[in-house]
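Teaching assistant here, posting this on the class forum so everyone can see the example we discussed in section. The complex has two components, and the goal was to see what a joint structure prediction looks like when all of them are supplied at once.
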Amino acid sequence: MKTKLSISVIFLYILFSGIFIPSAWGQTIETDTDTGESADDGENAPTPSTTDQTATLLQQLNDAMQAQQAEIEALKSQNQAQDEEAEQLRAELEDAAEEREMLSTSLMESASDANERKFSVFGFMDTTFAAALPGKEGGSRNWESPVFVLTKQNPTFYQNNINLYFKSEMTPTLETLIETRFTFQPNGYVEEYPQRIYVSGAPYETQNYWSRTDTLTQSNYSGEFRLGGIAIERAQFDWKPKDWLKIRMGRFLTPFGIWNEDHGSTVRLSPSAPFIVTHNYVPSAQTGIMAFGQIFIGNHVDIEYALTLSNGRGPVDEVYDLDKNKAMGLRQKINIYAGDFSMSAGAYGFMGQYTDSQYSLDVYLDTNGFDDTVSNPIQYNTRVTAKYDEAILAADLQFHFFGVHLLGEYMRGKVDYIVPTQLDPLTPLFIGSPLNDEAIEPNTIRQAWYAMAAYDLPFFKRIKVTPFVGIDSLQPSDVYDYEYIKLFQGGFNIKPSPYVALKSVLYAIMPENETLLGDRLWVWSNQVAVSF
Amino acid sequence: MREPRQIHVAIEGARFMIRHYLPAIVFSIVAFTLILQSNAAEAERPDDILIIANKSIKTDSISLTDAKRIFLKQKTSLNGERITPIHAKSNSPLRKQFGEKVLGKSPSEEKSYWEDQKIKSGLRPPAELSNTMRAIFSLKNGISYCYRKDFTPGTAKILLVL
C-alpha cells in the first residue's frame, strides 16, 4: 500500500510541475518535424534564467524520485524480513505442536508400557514328521524288532507341543507365569499290551491285555470328536526383590542342566530332547518353593544359584506328598564371558524320597455296634506300595565362541529301595535268568549324558543355519545292561525368522550291548516349530 | 670375574638414564595424557549415543557390561536401586546402533534372543518408546539412551557416552 501511495504522489508531482511551468511545455513538446532536431537552438531558445529554474526543478524531481526509490527498496527489504520472520514463527509453532504431541504420547506410553500391570499370552507349537527304519538282520529289515514297542513303526505326523503361556507382571517385583500344554492325549495312549510267552513253540502264558485309551465322544450339535488333555507344565509365582534373591512358589521347572529349562521346541537345537530329559531321571518339575538369584562379579563373571524345597518325586506330587520327607536341591552355575566367547558350568544336586501308597478306612463292628475291643474302631490306614530314596547329581557345561556351540550334560542317580516294587517278570529273561514272577526291583545306579556340537554358518545374513551333531547315552540301571543305548544324531536347524525353527535330523539309535531287545534303528525326524 | 663389572656398568647406565631422562619421560607422559583428554573432549559428536537415566537414580556412571545386562534384563538394579530400562523403537537407527554397540547383537539376533527368553522363562523385552529422552524425563528410575543431538541438558543424567 505504501509503495502504491508513493508512486501516486510522484505521478501527481510530475503532472502538476508540467502544468504550472509553461517553459517546460516548450522544451519538451516543440521539435523540428522536418529535421528531427531540437528547436532549442536559435531564436526560440528559452532564456538562461528559465533554463536554470527548469534544471533545478528537474534535479529536485530526480532527487525526490531517488529518495522515493530508496524508500521503496527499504520497504521491500522490511517486507521480506517480516515474511521470513513469519515463516520462522510458523515453523516454531509446528515444532511446538509436534513436541507437545510427542510428549503426551510418550507420557501415555510411559504409563502404559513401563509402569502399569502387564498381562501377556504367548506360546509355541511344533509339528513333526518322523519315519523309522530298523537295522538289517540277515539281509532284511527287522520290522518285528521289539523297539517298536517304544517308537512309531510307520511314518507319522504328530504334534507333541502346543504350549500356551499366561504371564502377568503385577509390579516390577511380582509376577506369575503359567505354562499349559495342550495335547491330543490321552487319546491313543497304549496303557497295556499283551505279552505272549511261548515255551518250545507252545503258548505258555499271556500277560496283560490290550488297552488303548479312546476319548471319542459325541456332541448333540456337531457330531463325534475326540477329547484331548491339558497338562500344567509350570504355574509359578515370583517375588523378585533383588537380583541376588528371588523367591518362586508353585510348580516350577527343576533348575538343572541346559535342556530342561530351555524347554521350548523353538529354542532347542534338535527335535527331540536328550535321554536325560525324556527319561525324567531328574524330576523335570517340582512343586514347592525355590530361592534363586544371580550375583555379578566384575564385567565378565556371574554366579547363579537356586535352592529348592519340594514334594519331590511321587505318583501325585503335583497335588499331594505321600510321605513326610521333603526333597531338597541345590543348583550352582558360573557364567564367564568376554567378547564373542562365553562359557558356563553348572551342577545340581537333589535328594528326595519317592513314596507310593494306598489308604483305606477300616471300620470294626460287632453285634452291638462298634467293636469295643478295638481302641479306634474307625481307622485310616495307609499301605506303602513303593518307597525309595534317591540322590542325584547333574552337571552341565557349555561353550560359545565365534558361532561354535559346544554343550553337554551328565547325570548320575542312585536309587535305594525301602519298599521295592515288583519287577516285570520278563525282565530276568533278558539277562539270561529264568522267568521270575517274584523278582523285585533292585537298588540301582542310573546314568545318562550327552554332548553336542553346533556351528552357526556365517554365510547367511537373514537366516540362521546351524548344522549340528551329537551323541546321547543312556544307562537306566547298573544291574541290567540290556537297556544301554547310544544315540548318534546329525542334522540342521534353520531359523528363517526369530519365530520359526525348521529342523531335520537323522538319528541312529544303537543298543550298546548285544541284546534280544533291539537292533540298530534309524529315525529321520523333521520338525517345524513356531513361537507366537 | 667380568660379570660383576658388567652388572656395575648396567646399573650405572640405568642411573644415568633416570637422572637425565626421567623428567623428560614424565613430562611426555603427562603431556600425552592431556592431549588425549583434550582430543576426547573435542571428539563429542551429535550422533554419540548417551546412556541416560532419570535424575532420581543415584548412580552417576555405568559400565558397558552393566548396560548390556540391564537391557537384556539379566540385571534389574544398579547399586541396590531398581531400574526400568526403556528401549527406542525397534525399527529406529538409534536402536540398531545401540544393539550393535552395547548388546553385541544385530536387530534379528536381538529378536531371536527375546523369542528364546520368552519361551525359556517368560521374559519379555523392555518397553519401547519413540522418544526415549522424554520418557526418561518423566519415568522414575528409568534408564535409556538417545543421541547427543537429542539430549536436553538438565532433563536427565548421562551415565555413559558411547
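For the discussion questions: Helices of chain A lie at 2-19, 22-29, 48-115, 259-262, 275-278, 427-430. The radius of gyration of chain A is 47 Å. Think about how each of these relates to the inputs above.
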